Amino acid sequence: MSATPAVYNRNNPYMASIKENRLLNKAGSEKDTRHIVVDTAGHVPYHVGDSLGVIPRNVPAVVADLIGKLKLDPETPVPAANNTTVTLKEALSSQYILNRASKKFVKGIVDKIPAGEKKEEIAALIANEPALDEYVFSRDYVDVLNDCAGVELNVTELLGLVNKVAPRLYSIASSSVVYPNEVHLTVAVVKYESHGRPKMGIASGYLGYHSEAILTPVYTQPTRHFHLPALDKNIIMVGPGTGIAPFRAFLQERKATGATGKNWLYFGDQRRATDYLYEEELEGAVKEGSLHQLDLAFSRDQAEKIYVQTRMMEKSAEMWKWIQEGAYFYVCGDAKRMARDVHQALIEIAKKEGGLSQEAAENYINVTFTKEEKRYLKDVY
Ligand SMILES: Cc1cc2nc3c(=O)[nH]c(=O)nc-3n(C[C@H](O)[C@H](O)[C@H](O)COP(=O)(O)OP(=O)(O)OC[C@H]3O[C@@H](n4cnc5c(N)ncnc54)[C@H](O)[C@@H]3O)c2cc1C
User: Fold this and answer.
1) Nearest atom within ligand 1 for CA of residue 242
2) Residue with CA nearest ligand 1 atom 36
3) Is the CB of 171 under 6 A from ligand 1?
4) Other CB atoms closer than 10 Å to residue 258's CB: what's the count?
């Protein structure tokens, strides 16, 4: 009798090993983007368009800094699941978010700040929620403890004041038809400096700088809408930066399943010489004919900034023709600026090439194309 396959999810993640961590940017880039290959041994089924949920760990230096700052013993046993214990070091590594201070931490330590100006300043901050939000935005716990000299906490007090870890999502960059035992990701490591100390995003920093010996809890987060159309449909994909991830998966899947529709990709980043992610693969796909059109926009290679939406406008007639002939339009990546600008470009194209008024163009893109025909699909974050 065969066992029922385990179903892994947020509450019951699969413990995967990470078998590859490759820097995609070249020397001299301002970015740190990684190609990550997660070895799932086939236990984590997925479809193109899905995301992988990753439950991150804090990198060792962040844990050591906090334990050192509070002069605690890293080996102190602390309660864990099923009446077991783990060391303080392990609990802080895997169960809490240490790269950004919680508001409850600031509220919880105010009584421990020695009487004086700082105590009054922090008490005033706690009474002003927006100011408290701003205070914790750029500080981790060590920054707060540096700012509030003289605060001492024991292990139980500390664990009661730090936020629990939460998963982060990453668009899957591989096709399970081609890679049933692996999940590929394209991860931009978030790095910055604040209060004189270097910082990283918890999950992207972990994925970029993890220890290979440690297993990583992961699960599939299925997409509700970001699916490929029928094999004979044409697709247009706009994916600058890490937005390329699902489109790398789409291209693999379309090739493996013998799709007859054409594939048109827009990719962009800062500089061609250092930031052309997956350059060889994309150029190879063009050469072999599985990627029919590739348009590139490198914003910093010339005096004026060129973005994917600039390139879309350059081929507005052809894009309108594809859309009129039934092509599906996908956009992935930065929600704040890029996706908004791409949306505006689509409206401009409908006006320019379709001869529509502003109102009719907006109605066509927002209602007909998006809601009724469901041919305009977004995976933006
Ligand atoms: C559906 C979906 C798909 C996604 N796909 C991808 C993908 O394919 N690739 C990818 O890389 N990401 C993707 N993301 C984003 C990803 O989930 C994470 O949000 C991202 O990696 C940052 O998480 P983190 O844990 O590293 O950073 P966190 O620890 O959550 O936070 C770090 C944040 O702190 C901020 N910050 C705080 N203080 C400062 C300061 N002083 N200066 C600057 N910044 C500061 C930064 O803005 C940064 O965003 C996706 C998100 C969603 C929702």
Assistant:
1) 9
2) 138
3) yes
4) 7
Q: Is the per-residue pLDDT at 144 higher than 70?
A: yes
Residue 211: what pLDDT?
77
Residues 71 and 137 in one domain: yes
Q: What integer pLDDT is reported at residue 49 of this predicted model?
A: 98
138 lines ligand 1 (CB under 6 A): yes
Q: Which residue's CA lies nearest to atom 20 of ligand 1?
A: 204
Buried b (16+ CB within 10 A) or exposed e, 191-217: eeeeeeeebbbbbbbbbbebeeeeebb
Q: What is the mean pLDDT of residues 226-253?
A: 98
Inter-residue contact 173 to 246 (CB < 8 Å): yes
Structure tokens at 117: 């100006």
If you take atom 13 of ligand 1, which residue's CA is the nearest one? 170
Domain membership of residue 79 as a residue range: 60-161
Which residue has a Cα nearest atom 34 of ligand 1?
A: 201
Q: Is 192 in the pocket of ligand 1 (CB under 6 A)?
A: yes
The pLDDT tens digits of the residues spanning 312-363 come to 999 999 999 999 999 999 999 999 999 999 999 999 999 999 999 999 999 9
CATH number at residue 125: 1.20.990.10
- Same domain membership, residue 245 and residue 321: yes
What's the pLDDT at 203? Answer: 97
Distance 201 CA to ligand 1 centre (A): 6
Same domain, 75 and 153: yes
pLDDT confidence of residue 1:
46
Say yes or no: 174 and 151 in one domain. Answer: no
Q: How many residues does the chain have?
A: 381
User: How far apart, in whole angstroms, are the C-alpha atoms of residue 296 and residue 298?
Assistant: 7
- Tens of pLDDT, residue by residue over 12-46, are 999 999 999 999 999 999 999 999 999 999 999 99
Cα of 292 vs centre of ligand 1, distance in Å, is 32
pLDDT of res. 254? 98
Q: How far is CA 365 from CA 78, 281, 360, 362, 378, in A?
A: 55, 32, 9, 5, 13
Model pTM? Answer: 0.96
